[in-house]
Write a structure and sequence with these properties.
Structural class: alpha/beta
Shape: globular
Distance between the termini: 12 Å
Strand order of the largest sheet: 7-6-10-11-12-13
Largest sheet: 6 strands, parallel
Number of strands: 13
Length: 319
C-alpha cells in the first residue's frame, strides 16, 4: 500500500478520494526536526509552505517517490536535487489563484476605508472615540475607481488580480521581468447578455511602471534578495500603496517601514513576511498597514481545489 504523509494537512475531500482509492493517508504533523526520522516510512510527502524539504532531508529518505506542494511556488523544496534523486515534484499553481487575488482587494478595501484601524480600536474604545474615528476615517477614505493598479508579475494571480481591478473601474498597468503581451478574459454571469469581454495588454518598463501606478500589487516568486527596497520605492509615486500577497523576502521590510513613516508609501497590505512568524515586530507595528498571517490560499474553496488536484496527481501516477 502506498503511504502518504500530509505533513501540512490536506482537505477532507482530497483525503477521502485517496483513501477510497486504496492509499493510506497520515495527516499527523511531524516537526521539521523529527521529519528525517520518520519520512522514510512514506512514499509521498505533501507539504505547504511550513515544511522545508532540503537536500539533507531528501538524502535520508531513499524510499520517497513524490513530493507535492499544495499551493503556488516550490521555494521550500530543493526541486532539482529531488529530481536528480528520482523524486517527482509537483505543485498546484492554479488552485489558489482566486483566493490570493481576492485577498489583495480585501487589504485594499481595508486600507481605503480605514477598516484595519477601526477594527483595532472600536472593540475597546468605540464608545469614547466613535466620533473621532468617524472623522479620521472619513478624512482619509478614498475610492479605488479611477486609480491605476500596477501588477508586478503577469502570471496567473497577477492576471486574476487585474480582472478584479478592471471590474472596479481601475486602470491597469503590468510589469513583468520578461516583457510580454497577453489577454485578460473577463467572464460574467451567464444570465447577462454579454457574458465575456477580453482586454489586451502589454507590459511596460519598470520605470514607467513605477511612474504610473497608484497602487502596486506584487505577484512574483521568491527571490534571493528583496526586489523592492529603498531604491525602487524612491522611483514610485509619492503616496503609493504597496500590496504583498506573494512571497516573504521580496520586499525589504526595514526600507518599507521607513517609507511608511515618511509618507512616501501611504499604505501597505502585507500577507507574507521575511521570517514567519516575524522576528522583527517593526513591520507589524507600522501605521497605515493592513496585516494578515500568510492566508493567501487559505479559503475553503482553494483548499478543496488543492486537495482534489493532489489526489488526482497521486492516483494518476500510481495507477
Amino acid at each position: 500500500m502506498i503511504k502518504i504523509l500530509a505533513n501540512d494537512g490536506i482537505h477532507d475531500k482530497g483525503r477521502k478520494i485517496l483513501q477510497d482509492a486504496g492509499f493510506e493517508v497520515d495527516t499527523n504533523h511531524i516537526s521539521q526536526d523529527d521529519l528525517s526520522k520518520s519520512l522514510n516510512n512514506y512514499d509521498v510527502l505533501l507539504v505547504r509552505s511550513a515544511t522545508k524539504v532540503r537536500e539533507s532531508l531528501i538524502d535520508k529518505c531513499p524510499n520517497l517517490k513524490m513530493i507535492i506542494r499544495g499551493g503556488v511556488g516550490l521555494d521550500n523544496i530543493d526541486v532539482e536535487y529531488a529530481k536528480k534523486k528520482g523524486v517527482l515534484v509537483f505543485n498546484t499553481p492554479s488552485a489558489s489563484t482566486q483566493s490570493v487575488a481576492e485577498l489583495v482587494f480585501a487589504h485594499l478595501f481595508s486600507l481605503a476605508r480605514s477598516l484595519y484601524e477601526s477594527n483595532a480600536i472600536m472593540p475597546e474604545q468605540g464608545d469614547s472615540l466613535f466620533k473621532a474615528l468617524k472623522k479620521s476615517s472619513g478624512s482619509k477614505g478614498f475610492e479605488l475607481q479611477g486609480k491605476t493598479m500596477g501588477i508586478y508579475g503577469a502570471g496567473r494571480i497577477g492576471r486574476e488580480t487585474a480582472k478584479k481591478a478592471i471590474a472596479l473601474g481601475m486602470n491597469v498597468v503590468f510589469y513583468n521581468i520578461n516583457p510580454i503581451e497577453g489577454t485578460i478574459e473577463m467572464n460574467f454571469d451567464k444570465r447577462l447578455k454579454m457574458n465575456s469581454l477580453n482586454f489586451s495588454f502589454s507590459t511596460v518598463t519598470l520605470n514607467e511602471f513605477f511612474q504610473q501606478a497608484d497602487i502596486i500589487s506584487l505577484h512574483i516568486p521568491a527571490a534571493d534578495q528583496p526586489v523592492i527596497g529603498a531604491k525602487e520605492i524612491s522611483k514610485m509615486k509619492d503616496g503609493v500603496i504597496l500590496i504583498n500577497c506573494a512571497r516573504g523576502g521580496i520586499v525589504n521590510e526595514k526600507d518599507l517601514c521607513i517609507a511608511l513613516k515618511s509618507g512616501k508609501v501611504a499604505y501597505a497590505g502585507i500577507d507574507v513576511f521575511d521570517k514567519e512568524p516575524p522576528e522583527d515586530m517593526s513591520i507589524l507595528q507600522c501605521k497605515n498597514v493592513s496585516l494578515s498571517p500568510h492566508i493567501g490560499g487559505s479559503t475553503k474553496e482553494a483548499q478543496a481545489r488543492i486537495g482534489l488536484e493532489i489526489a488526482e496527481r497521486i492516483i494518476s501516477h500510481f495507477s
